[in-house]
């Protein structure tokens, strides 16, 4: 084989034919070291020996460095910085630049710049929170608004740039032509009730239109809320202006309305209240109160009344239950109003109740007695006997055993028939549930009973009475002519911790005002001496005792109630303004 052929063969096999070294990145080093075997480096006789050695070392360093760089690139876990992908719109925020994140990746403050006409204005943009506040921003995400005070009519271009990559990159450039956004909200709300007595619970409903970012209710009594449909309690009287303010990026709008909250003074005068307390024990004959109101915060039972007692008051509010028997009468036959019972009602004997509308929160049992007026019960109705002179509405079942039905009955439930009740001609019973009756039952009665899909709905009227207020400060009474003496004479005003008086022949008791700050007011044996005026015991009871007490006219307000311990006594209502015409002189405070 010739020398040229041998060289080609060596090249093709990756071996240098001159020195037997492989042809690769180390071939130069190989050649140098093979030459060094035949000649020492420093005594070689060749001038290029040293340069060959140095060149080999340098080449080795370069090769090693290159391998290291490739390893770093190939083996490193840190990816190159990515550029966020998102859509940003320019919103019209009352002539200022506002950026709207419309979707995509989040942008972090440390990796971004906001350039306005080539100038870095990043620090001029603030994040609009859900509460309508502007705060420094750290991240810009979908739905966020970045608001500035930069006038948009002076701006040509806004750029959002990423500086997180090696080369700053413009994410999006916006020309100063805003996208269409919603106008400021159209504000409208309703509330119920619109007026009432302390404490007044009011429900508000926001019926506004448009995009809403921030909402603020101002109830006019130094209270606020950010709820959509709040419920608020007014604990003092007055006329309060309610303001609802709604904001979005386009601006804010407000609307107002007024709520009237009546206090205890208003309640006593407007409702003509003359007895207000926890209970009423009346062994007398008649309570006369045409157009007036009694409030009893507890129960009223037959044991509390004389067997023939007649409580002839137009409007009666009882927070507990009522049980009447004998010939007891509750309500005014000639001037009926509302009878509100927040418990059950039971009538026996010849007892009677009167009212245009009678509301019972629980069950009704009519054993024998009479109901005059429309009655609405949220419980069941057990009609055993007696008479109903008005419509009957019940949300529970009704059992009709006997008795006389003089007007229509509406049952949102089951009807049970027994024995033989009397149903007037033209009167019907409507029920939504099932009907049950004996097999032998009268077809004439069954023909008056009609199954229906629904009956007229009703609700218990909202009724809240303001709590009895406390007495005024002691100094107020002395400044207004009150005395603490025990003697009693007409026109006197007495203020004491408690007051007890047994009548003397020299006493007179017309147009009096007695305030017992912590205890009871007790008047005994005032036979032949008329008692008229205002009796106020915010923490006690008013008691008329003795065998000869005859009559009282006026107003009784006592937390623990009103007790007339003797028969033959008549009590007649008179509005408080007959005795104290100026409300500023009413003997109670504004606090409870």
TrEMBL record:
SUPFAM superfamilies cross-referenced by the UniProt entry: PKD domain
Domain of life where this protein originates: Archaea
One Pfam family this sequence matches: PKD_4
Domain PKD: 185-261
Keyword Oxidoreductase: no
InterPro entries from the UniProt entry: Ig-like_fold, Pilin_N_archaeal, PKD/Chitinase_dom, PKD_dom, PKD_dom_sf
Residue stretches spanning the membrane: 53-75
Official protein name in the record: PKD domain containing protein
């Amino acid at each position: 084989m010739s020398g040229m052929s041998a060289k080609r063969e060596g090249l093709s096999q990756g071996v240098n034919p001159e020195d037997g070294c492989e042809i690769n990145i180390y071939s130069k080093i190989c050649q140098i070291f093979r030459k060094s075997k035949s000649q020492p480096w420093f005594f070689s006789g060749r001038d290029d020996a040293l340069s060959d050695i140095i060149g080999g070392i340098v080449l080795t360093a370069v090769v090693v460095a290159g391998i290291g760089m490739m390893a770093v690139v190939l083996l490193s876990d840190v990816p190159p910085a990515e550029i966020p992908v998102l859509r940003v719109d320019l919103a019209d925020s009352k002539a200022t630049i506002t950026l709207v994140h419309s979707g995509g990746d989040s942008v972090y403050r440390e990796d971004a710049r906001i350039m306005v006409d080539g100038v870095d204005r990043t620090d001029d943009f603030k994040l609009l929170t859900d509460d309508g506040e502007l705060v420094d921003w750290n991240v810009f995400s979908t739905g966020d608004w970045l608001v500035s005070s930069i006038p948009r009519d002076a701006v040509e271009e806004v750029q959002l740039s990423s500086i997180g990559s090696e080369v700053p990159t413009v994410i999006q450039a916006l020309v100063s032509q805003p996208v269409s956004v919603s106008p400021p909200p159209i504000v409208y709300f309703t509330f119920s009730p619109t007026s009432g007595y302390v404490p007044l619970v009011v429900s508000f409903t926001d019926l506004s239109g448009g995009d809403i970012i921030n909402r603020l209710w101002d109830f006019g009594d130094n209270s606020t809320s950010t709820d959509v449909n709040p419920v608020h309690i007014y604990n003092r009287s007055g006329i309060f202006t309610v303001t609802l303010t709604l904001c979005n990026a386009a601006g804010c709008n407000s609307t107002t309305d007024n709520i009237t909250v009546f206090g205890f003074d208003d309640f006593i005068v407007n409702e003509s209240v003359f007895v207000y307390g926890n209970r009423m024990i009346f062994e007398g004959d008649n309570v006369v109160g045409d157009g007036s109101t009694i409030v009893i915060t507890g129960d009223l039972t037959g044991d509390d009344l004389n067997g023939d007692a007649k409580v002839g008051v137009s409007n009666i509010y009882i927070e507990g239950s009522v049980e009447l028997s004998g010939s007891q009468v509750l309500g005014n036959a000639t001037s009926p109003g509302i009878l509100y019972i927040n418990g059950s009602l039971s009538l026996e004997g010849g007892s009677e109740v009167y009212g245009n509308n009678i509301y019972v929160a629980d069950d009704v049992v009519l054993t024998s007695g009479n109901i005059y007026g429309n009655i609405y019960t949220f419980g069941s109705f057990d009609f055993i006997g007696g008479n109903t002179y008005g419509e009957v509405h019940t949300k529970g079942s009704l059992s009709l055993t006997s008795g006389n039905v003089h007007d229509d009955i509406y049952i949102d439930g089951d009807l049970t028939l027994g024995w033989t009740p009397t149903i007037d001609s033209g009167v019907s019973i409507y029920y939504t549930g099932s009907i049950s009756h004996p097999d032998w039952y009268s077809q004439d009665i069954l023909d008056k009973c009609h199954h229906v899909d629904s009956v007229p709905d009703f609700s218990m009227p909202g009724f809240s009475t303001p709590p009895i207020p406390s007495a005024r400060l002691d100094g107020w009474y002395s400044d207004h002519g009150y005395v603490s003496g025990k003697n009693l004479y007409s026109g006197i005003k007495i203020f004491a911790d408690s007051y007890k008086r047994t009548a003397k022949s020299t006493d007179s008791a017309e147009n009096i005002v007695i305030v017992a700050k912590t205890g009871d007011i007790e008047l005994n044996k005032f036979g032949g001496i008329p008692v008229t005026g205002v009796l106020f015991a915010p923490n006690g009871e008013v008691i008329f005792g003795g065998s000869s007490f005859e009559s009282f006219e006026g107003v009784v307000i006592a937390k623990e109630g009103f007790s007339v311990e003797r028969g033959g006594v008549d009590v007649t209502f008179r509005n408080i303004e007959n005795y104290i015409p100026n409300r500023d002189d009413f003997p109670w405070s504004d606090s409870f």
